Amino acid sequence: MNKVLVTGAAGFIGSHLCEALLARGDEVVGVDCFTDYYPRFLKQRNLDLLLGQPGFRFVEGDLQKARAREIGAQ
Fold first, then answer.
1. What's the CA gap between 18 and 66, in Å, rounded?
2. Which of 33, 57, 70, 74 could form a disulfide with 62 if both were Cys (CB 3.0 to 4.6 A apart)?
3. pTM score, whole prediction
4. Which residues does 35 contact at the CB level (< 8 Å), separation at least 6?
């Protein structure tokens, strides 16, 4: 099992990447900042499919402003 950080996890590509990583047994931390250029309801719909899955944790925030501890870096 790998620990993987996926940025843009609520977007189309990021959410599908998270699904594939979880399916192969990886532990995933997904990060997304919900920028205004992408409708939030679309990203939330993608994210809803991931939330609650074993091995997935979501952090809403901007990587430029986040602290490593907030996203689970060790």
1. 20
2. 33
3. 0.85
4. none
Amino acid at 18: C
Confidence of residue 11 (pLDDT cuts 50, 70, 90): very high
Query: For position 74, what pLDDT does the model report?
Result: 47
> What is the rounded CA–CA span in Å between residue 36 and residue 68?
24
> Is 31 strand, coil or helix?
strand
**Strand ranges inside 8-50, DSSP E:** 27-32
pLDDT, one tens digit per residue, over 14-67 is: 999 999 999 999 999 999 999 888 899 999 999 999 999 999 999 998 877 766
**How far does the chain reach from its first CA to its final CA, in angstroms?**
16
